[in-house]
Predict the structure.
Amino acid sequence: MTQLDTNLDDATQVMQSNMQLIGRDEINDMEAIFSLVGAVDEKGSHAVVDNCPALFTWDYEKGFRPALDKLYEKAKRSQWNGSTDLDWSTPVDQEKLAHQAYVDGSRGPLAAASLDGTALASWGEKEWVTLNMEYQNWMLSQFMHGEQGALLCTAKIVETVPWIDAKYYAATQVMDEARHVEVFSRYLDSKLSGHYQMNGHLGLLLDDIVADSRWDMTYLGMQIMVEGLALAAFGFMHATTQEPLLKQLLRYVMADEARHVAFGVLSLQELYGQLSHAEIRERQEFAFEAALRMRDRMQGQEVWDRLGVSRHDAAQVTLLDPDRVVFQAALFSKIVPNCKKLGLLDAGDGWLRTKFTEMGVIAFEDWEDTTLDADANAEGSPVGRE
């Protein structure tokens, strides 16, 4: 058995179907995707049972894993203060920015989509500007919820990972994630016009990651998959936003996120060479499930629900927007090369390669993995690097 003691047997491991993994047979069933809308939790909190063991180690030798130790030293020198390093006095006129997006892009989101036969065909300037504002509220809210998920998961890694160098680095990431939750929450509260509940697909994924007792599944789900997609999404928003405070905030967060994803790659690379075929297959399946959950959450179901647009119409216009399809695929530009570096793409019979091909994202396999990212290897706070 491996150190994970997963109790899997190569001979009895059965490949799960799409229905078992994601609750539907067809990965592009838009009606099913749009049927899952995140619910508002009236209690103000959400509990997930987490039965993972808290693991002490008596091996305190710092630097036994040099790559992790190097990352830890960089992290200590790269901290920034969300209260003082961002200029919160910067005025933000969200409605003006939303109107400009409407003017620049004809109608903002879904600019290339066909609206024929849907309620959106009769929309005018007011409705599209409202959509632009609501979509920004929704997107930043999902970033905030995802960062809290990362906060919980990284604290869990401190508890469960057996290596002291990994515990040291993960502790710095806990501070990073607290700062990220803080700044996204403050931006939403003080600069935008409302919060959204957690997206249903994102919520299911975070529940799965937190509930799994195995430390490497926390790494795979959060460090590789969720943080990998977030890093790409932050990059797109940073490149397109004209709002200076948000651009600065995203730049600082991205500098942290690159280290976080590299932390996951460096840690799992060592472990995955020790796992059995059945154990690797389970991780391939989990990566595929996570990939679909994150792709599906980008549809913004909660926005359409709030605006009173039927799920049928929302699904139709989203499916027929070629720009959106390209954007969603590009969000995997960090995930696919990292999965390849970890050996997950081609392990066994190449099952994950086949699944990523079906999703239309395999073209990113030879892009730079995050261990080579400039931010992951940079020295000092991103504030000092501006």
